[in-house]
């Protein structure tokens, strides 16, 4: 959940990227490899975040993740408040509120669902935006395929790994992701470089702070938890954002979108390897339905 939709809206020539050795290393990796590394980083961060739920509630982990990301990205691209219009403020604050709700509901979802299932459901948000941008009848097939995937994920039987509450949280996160995409485009046209995202993350950290601090309490001051929270912020925001920006400079946007469609499958693999979340055949089929729908919608958008 990083720069998935920023490719159409931001002036990438002014966006910050890794410097020195990191930039050289990134240049030596094929752009498709950078996207896959970014997806892996995001989902690895989500896996470590979920592992923290044993000692901190999801809202406290969200607070650590967003605050760490805001501090790091803010240091790279410090937003300038002077000269902002009322509409600039409205878009920036709306962007930040959406970011806060998106992350909070996603973390509440993965607290109740396997990581791969939660990401697949959340992915319906950007999929909906991609389908809405194209008016071809074939899009109805991709909507149907995605809907079939959600139906396969639903706990119709005695599934212990899936809950209706988790599905509801993931759907809200997906709706917020769709809003994030639209607001990212608006912010990209009004804020230079990455300062729109930086401003939104600061707003998001401020909004989530009361809930996160109240739920986490004194445990938030434990050095080891702060360190893990910093790592989650790096893995979930800073590292993938930088990798995606490097990739977007060197590859067509439709190829980027196709590769990003693999994110639910990557989430399921991270859930299996890091968290021991074993999915059954029905759940894997559901994830593949969402991946297939996203791939189809992306290709149709390219051809249209």
From TrEMBL:
<keyword id="KW-0812">Transmembrane</keyword>
<dbReference type="InterPro" id="IPR051258">
    <property type="entry name" value="Diverse_Substrate_Transporter"/>
</dbReference>
<keyword id="KW-1003">Cell membrane</keyword>
<feature type="transmembrane region" description="Helical">
    <location>
        <begin position="281"/>
        <end position="300"/>
    </location>
</feature>
<feature type="domain" description="EamA">
    <location>
        <begin position="165"/>
        <end position="295"/>
    </location>
</feature>
<protein>
    <submittedName>
        <fullName>DMT family transporter</fullName>
    </submittedName>
</protein>
<dbReference type="InterPro" id="IPR037185">
    <property type="entry name" value="EmrE-like"/>
</dbReference>
<dbReference type="InterPro" id="IPR000620">
    <property type="entry name" value="EamA_dom"/>
</dbReference>
<feature type="transmembrane region" description="Helical">
    <location>
        <begin position="163"/>
        <end position="187"/>
    </location>
</feature>
<feature type="transmembrane region" description="Helical">
    <location>
        <begin position="255"/>
        <end position="275"/>
    </location>
</feature>
<keyword id="KW-1133">Transmembrane helix</keyword>
<feature type="transmembrane region" description="Helical">
    <location>
        <begin position="113"/>
        <end position="133"/>
    </location>
</feature>
<feature type="transmembrane region" description="Helical">
    <location>
        <begin position="55"/>
        <end position="77"/>
    </location>
</feature>
<feature type="transmembrane region" description="Helical">
    <location>
        <begin position="225"/>
        <end position="243"/>
    </location>
</feature>
<feature type="transmembrane region" description="Helical">
    <location>
        <begin position="89"/>
        <end position="107"/>
    </location>
</feature>
<keyword id="KW-0472">Membrane</keyword>
<feature type="transmembrane region" description="Helical">
    <location>
        <begin position="194"/>
        <end position="213"/>
    </location>
</feature>
<dbReference type="Pfam" id="PF00892">
    <property type="entry name" value="EamA"/>
</dbReference>
<feature type="transmembrane region" description="Helical">
    <location>
        <begin position="140"/>
        <end position="157"/>
    </location>
</feature>
<comment type="similarity">
    <text>Belongs to the EamA transporter family.</text>
</comment>
């Amino acid at each position: 959940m990083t720069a998935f939709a920023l490719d159409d809206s931001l002036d990438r020539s002014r966006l910050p990227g890794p410097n020195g050795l990191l930039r050289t290393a990134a240049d030596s990796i094929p752009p498709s490899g950078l996207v896959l590394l970014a997806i892996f980083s995001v989902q690895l961060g989500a896996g470590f975040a979920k592992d923290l739920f044993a000692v901190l509630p999801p809202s406290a982990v969200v607070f650590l993740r967003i605050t760490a990301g805001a501090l790091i990205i803010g240091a790279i691209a410090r937003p300038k408040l002077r000269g902002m219009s009322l509409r600039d403020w409205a878009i920036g604050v709306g962007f930040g509120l959406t970011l806060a709700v998106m992350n909070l509901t996603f973390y509440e979802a993965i607290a109740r669902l396997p990581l791969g299932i939660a990401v697949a459901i959340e992915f319906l948000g950007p999929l909906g935006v991609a389908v809405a941008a194209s008016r071809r009848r074939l899009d109805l097939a991709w909507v149907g395929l995605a809907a079939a995937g959600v139906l396969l994920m639903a706990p119709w039987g005695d599934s212990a790994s899936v809950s209706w509450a988790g599905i509801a949280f993931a759907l809200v996160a997906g709706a917020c992701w769709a809003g994030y995409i639209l607001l990212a485009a608006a912010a990209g046209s009004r804020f230079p470089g990455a300062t729109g995202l930086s401003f939104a993350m600061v707003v998001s950290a401020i909004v989530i702070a009361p809930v996160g601090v109240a739920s986490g309490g004194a445990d938030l001051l434990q050095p080891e938890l702060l360190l893990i929270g910093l790592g989650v912020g790096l893995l979930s925001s800073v590292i993938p954002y930088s990798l995606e920006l490097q990739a977007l400079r060197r590859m067509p946007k439709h190829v980027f979108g196709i590769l990003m469609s693999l994110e639910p499958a990557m989430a399921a693999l991270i859930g299996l390897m890091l968290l021991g979340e074993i999915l059954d055949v029905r759940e894997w089929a559901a994830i593949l339905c969402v991946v297939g729908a996203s791939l189809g919608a992306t290709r149709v958008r390219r051809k249209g």
